[in-house]
């Protein structure tokens, strides 16, 4: 009988629940962090407000607690190599709990919040979805939409995000099924991938049109959506079996359609007025810029190991394992908060350094092209980490209150070799449209020619994109007769 040993190399990926928790920590803004900590204090009997001095707190850990915790505090929060991967950005909705914080005074008065459109959609789904797993999926999808009501990424990407966020596998079929349920809620098309998907949903759910006309509508927007946006009718006449009268009817159909599902909800009863609590401050001190966190003092949290010791038992009823788990959780929260603040401090200092001219002058022309990778390279961190600590974060600056995401722009290279930020170019496109003759509005091709005179070479497709970002309709829809 022959015996042998075979060595097989398998490659796999393990996701630690603590790693996922820390990724969520980086996403949280100050209000959400307050809510999270308050909830943890309710659930963890060993996490409490610190009522002793720092010197007293140093002696708090007893032999029993030390045996349970071991060396976990140095490594349980996260490891740089393990955590800082280029996973797609995701953010689960943080359940609404009491916004009162006993940790410290908030820096700005909170505004009364009305119901968000996402809440309205999810309230409808509670009565449609029967199983909990599907409800979890639709919950994630609904609260992953942008202000226009779009998911803004494809099925594969959103599937990867929810698998990573939930720590379990979901098939694309499950995600698509849940998305379809959302699309059928009011407003129709909410949760579409993008504008093209949204218009397809409106067409397929419209019971007032014939099957033949529905087919023609779908053919037009699916053949070439960019050509549809610029209303290039000659293109569709050449490439589809459709006469001029039918084509006019097709484009007329969209004239009274909203271009995104949340149109009309901006000033309605479900308008969402968010609490804006800035976490960063950029100020000028002695003619120099300084970036810092507004609340630099740490949460006054403490781990009550004395209480844990009093509950110690020699019996095997699970008490000791419960104590160990809660002690680890309490220490992890304290360390994670500190590491979150250290990361945020590095990021804001890097932003101040790279955009100093803009903050000092206030001129948008001095806003340098800057992407997440520029910050990540400067502070030697991963791009995904920078993305998480700038998402949904605001800063008080000499120019007023700024969403940090507004500072990140791609570079556009002029024919002269000069670089401009794409936001500056987008603002220029919007300004050109504002100053046009409304009786003879500019087409995207006309705008392209005007920009070319300024040595800015852009494709017509890019100009269409910038115009749509500014929510500016096509030239024929802007025309005043």
Binned strand content: 5-15%
Radius of gyration: 27 Å
Envelope shape: globular
State mean pLDDT (0 to 100 scale): 76
Number of domains: 3
Strand order of the largest sheet: 3-2-5-6
Number of helices: 23
Report how far the terminal alpha carbons are from each other: 94 Å
Number of strands: 8
- Give the biggest beta sheet: 4 strands, mixed
The secondary structure category is alpha+beta
Poorly predicted runs are 52-114, 267-273
Helical amount = 40-55%
Pfam family, one: Sigma54_CBD
Keywords: DNA-binding, DNA-directed RNA polymerase, Nucleotidyltransferase, Sigma factor, Transcription, Transcription regulation, Transferase
InterPro entries: RNA_pol_sigma_54, RNA_pol_sigma_54_core-bd, RNA_pol_sigma_54_DNA-bd, RpoN_core-bd_sf
Family: Belongs to the sigma-54 factor family.
Structure description:
The chain is α+β, with helices and mostly antiparallel strands. The chain has 3 domains: 14-93 and 274-408, no CATH class; 117-253, no CATH class; 412-478, Arc Repressor Mutant, subunit A. Helix content is 48%, strand content 7%. The protein has 23 helices and 8 strands. The strands form 3 sheets. A 4-stranded mixed beta sheet has the order 3-2-5-6. Strands 1-4 form a two-stranded antiparallel sheet. Strand 7 and strand 8 (419-421) form a beta hairpin. Helix 6 (117-125) runs antiparallel to helix 7 (132-142). Residues 52-114 and 267-273 have low confidence and may be disordered.
